[in-house]
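Input chain follows. Return structure tokens only.
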Amino acid sequence: MQMKGPAAYISVPYISVVVAARNDNHGGNMLRRMQAFLNAWFGQAARYDLPSEVIVVEWNPPADRPKLIECLELPAEIG
């Protein structure tokens, strides 16, 4: 069976990770925990050559805090 459309171009598994978050320090050290998650995800994806993406949905950001995009660091090769 021959696949058609966008799926025809993907020959290996591809993972999309969707994360909802906000910079409100819920649970303490929220930015540190989010940065650790991103570092771990991108590190493992690179190590195992896993095509993937992380979509961060900033839900209802507090007006008195910086946006997540301003606080988190992405690896230089994807940034």
